[in-house]
Amino acid sequence: MFGPYERTEHLKLFAEDGVPAWFGADLVEEDFEAVSWNWEQATQLVPALGRAGIKANVRGPFQMTADELPLMGPAWGLPNVWLAEGVPGGILWGGTIGYYLSERIVEGGNSLDTSDLDPRRFGDYANKAWTREKVREAWGTHAEQKYPGQDMPAARPQKTAPSYARLTELGAVWGVLNGWEMPNWFAPRGVEAKDQHSWRWTAKGAFVAEEVQAVRNAVGLVEMTPMTKFEVSGPNAAAWLDKILANRLPATGRAVLAHHLTAGGGVQAEYMVARLAEDSFYLISTPRAERWNFDDLSKLLPADGSVSLKNVTSERGCFTIVGPNARDVLQPLTEIDLSNTNFPWFGVKSGSVALASDVRLLRVNYEGELGWELYHPMAYQRQLLDAILKQGEKHGMRLVGLHALESLRLEKSYRAMYRDMNPELNALESGLERFVRLDKGDFVGRDAVLKYKARGDQRRSVTLKIETDGASTLASEGLYIGGELVGRITSGGYGYTLGHDVALALLPERLSKSGTKLDVAILGEWKTAEIIADSPYDPNSARARM
């Protein structure tokens, strides 16, 4: 018995407009031509298969999603409705989905992170036309090698900000987040603007390094438009948010990092919360969570209408201007005083920048340097980009993509949603103690955090230094001491400023002291990982306060 697969160009979709009335557990007509190439290779690899001869080539429909993973979890926009569908192999998935969906319904969460299966991982961009193209691509490339960070090309570009054409001219190598095109890195003049995929380092690392160095030593511009953005307002907005979020709410004109926990104490959302007025808040979260976060918050809204929740993700773009020269770039473009005295770290102000009105400036960033995030009405974006680029030429500005951003955040030990924190890991496991205010009163997940804190077998998130050459850690690599598995890496990569890999990892508290050495295999080669203090770059965040 042998299972052949069609290539994309030969793939025929079934039940595009609903399952036919006649279909039960039926097969569909044979199509040997579509899989003949697969049979030919199989008989070369296993000659006995060819000698036995082909008796029948059986075809039947599979359920398939755009990423080949099932839809398991809450249905968006519907109270107490749960999905378990899009399952490509019932024998393989059935028992697992039955167990973890039941656990989630009964317990309010999972003992294992099932974020990758949540139906709300797909936003409203996943319409029928998009799904048709992506399913054809997913199944047609099912048996092909996939590489870390590889963004498949079907149904792209789909969602683009006004900056897209200009950044393409300037060498953007595009990836995709929540349907949006977002730059991964920028190819200099004379270098092909095409991503390079491998399990090992590639030539693009030299250009990513230059982007990192610009942020550390001069100034960078990061296109962050795909970030999820909500507005929360109303007479009861503050009290409502305070019951949901684990951190204290900021004062007006200030921002804080705050987390929405599960009932079990895991992290289901991370928000930068900016307070625009006494009863008006601006919430920013990861692009992937747009539908997920909005659905969770919507289902918690009070019935009396005292709180309004609005998704403004597509209404506002965002540029991050970050690096020691960030103030020099921005100050000539705005009448807002950007000095430390008037605009301190984690401050929030609104005003005009260049010709753009109603820009919300947040003095926060994901890179660990002096910088501002500029949330602007989308209609102003193209002009604003050109104005910033022109001013930036005087100060060594470099366009910066996601690959550099990943290196910059790892050097600061900033945790990433769905990797270093997720619904499975208790907030304390993820190292979020300073953002969880147990003394502020009740909030979702507080009891579970207190219970975990009282345990004697706690795990901790730690930062690792790993000397690497040619390949970097990614995620989920096991950590060993004396051949015994003691923990795992949750995310990692090369720190271009530090000159070595930086990883975040989960370990038992008894093994979490700085200086502890562990073994980790990276592509089959054993390396030494050493626990170091969090935030190996600028541990006191003095540069962000410049």
Overview of the molecule:
By secondary structure, this protein is of the alpha+beta class. Among the domains are: 8-52, no CATH class; 71-140, no CATH class; 316-408, Gyrase A, domain 2; 458-540, Beta Barrel (Elongation Factor Tu (Ef-tu), domain 3). The chain is built from twelve helices and 21 strands. The strands form five sheets. A six-stranded mixed β-sheet has the order 12-13-14-11-5-15. The chain has a six-stranded antiparallel beta barrel with strand order 16-19-18-17-20-21. The protein has a five-stranded antiparallel β-sheet with strand order 7-8-9-6-10, with helices on one face. It is globular. The N and C termini lie far apart (67 Å).
Judging by the overall fold, what is the CATH architecture of the domain at 316-408? 2-Layer Sandwich
Q: Structural class of the secondary structure composition?
A: alpha+beta
Strand share of the residues? 25-35%
Radius of gyration: 25 Å
| Low-pLDDT segments | none
Instruction: Please report the total strand number as a whole number.
Output: 21
For the largest beta-sheet, the strand count, sense and barrel status come to: 6 strands, mixed
